[in-house]
């Protein structure tokens, strides 16, 4: 369905030079890639942000003709992408944006022509502006997200003016206040509603919309208004469950048992062009590193050309690879790694390649890497490149160091969960211990890691405390702040912390001074040099600079803890608190689907009726003939869409509770990891 829009425009692509921006390139990686566009007749494909006059010479289809057609595919708003098209438009676009943009683009092109060229072509080139629906990353046939640099993903989901603001990349939490009808909704809400409307059209479905969370209610309302009453040809109905990510910040910030989550957490991603967007999200295109010494992953052809098998996890034209990734979403980490090993061994046996070692119920990084190397060097190496990459990715994230680090995270989070259930009195001291231990030379976790766990700790504390101004006492929080301050002043944080931007030089000077001071303490006072005596005379100036640094650092740390207070408040207002046993934690999707399948009432869940539906409900109600109550369980197809994003653990939990649904699709703004949650809540996206 995602490719249908391009197939319908295949005539325009014949012989055209196609430009794709960052977001469109990322989406096409999952929609069939370059082979798909070339099959539709494209002359060549180039990146929009790096457009050059030399692109005219690009000919990939073997037909050398004069370039007469250019097709530009952008995932941005027209007013934002035009600087890459002509870089000279400043006129805002109105409601009839496509027509206005076409006219303005023609004006700019004609201005750039010489007088002679204008006489030859007075009307200018032919320009057509069309809407391309369903520009998304279809990670698997049942899981999709937005391209990370597309307007859908980078548009703000909330404003700092809101009292319940968490981050521009997350919906505001429910503070019990209704949305002001006179206030403009966040740009991200409108774009999400329009995408879901396009999705319903492409899938030929009519959504029966349910929502939970303030922004989800707003998106559901907008989607209902856009979709209208659905008169005309009858369409198949599907349930749509819209959820705010802010309902549950614990699950995506936790280190769950999932191989897919580990791959997206540990492995690097494709980098983007510099952007001024208010929300920056990591690319969905995972880059599997290939080291220079790994000669087994470099193919040399007869003409001495070398091809390096490195980069993406899987591609849409590798149908087996896409289905394998879909299966891995349902598996825990050890089961997933074992499954990858078995897949590789099965292919090797089919190719009559001897597989060394016995089949065991566990596997490790060394075995996976060895099998991936053997498969690549076999006759099926290129054909099974997707499986080679999957094996190498699994090997990368199952090394002893990474398994130890992930388990340290998971163990700390489990301990916090148990402590919170028994009472939050010991929670603050445990969090303080984690922060202080992170500065130890023998610690597996860094300071950034400890602060990521702090998100989980504050969210858990918020569930068991309704105190204003943070869940902990003033003394407990002061100790936490001092621990963070001491950890920062002790030495460089690896990796660096975004909320310290602007203080790097002052901190570098402080760390260097502390290092020199420690070295001087080792030597005898009699050995002091003249330079050291001169620096001692400058103590007053140094103490003043030190005081300035500490004051600025205290302000930054106060901002950090203000953000954590809002994390706790978001959990305090969790609408499903009363539906489960105190002391148990399950993700919001897990809890919701359990309630749906048991036909239980769900606090805060809203059903969005069309105009006709509301009329029938109110009109027939006067005669005691009200319509039956709508339920999600009435549908055979269900789409769960999380505004703000989801992780692989939630996909697995949702599928485990699929119940009577014939088809369960999972979609959202992005695929979240604990690192992404840190950036959204405590990193540069917020502070």
From TrEMBL:
Bias (Acidic residues) occurs at: 527-539
Chain positions covered by the region annotation Disordered:
516-539
Task: Name any Gene Ontology BP term.
Answer: vesicle-mediated transport
Show the InterPro entries listed in the entry.
Sec1-like (IPR001619), Sec1-like_dom2 (IPR027482), Sec1-like_sf (IPR036045)
- Superkingdom to which the source organism belongs: Eukaryota
Its family remark reads: Belongs to the STXBP/unc-18/SEC1 family.
Entry protein name: Uncharacterized protein
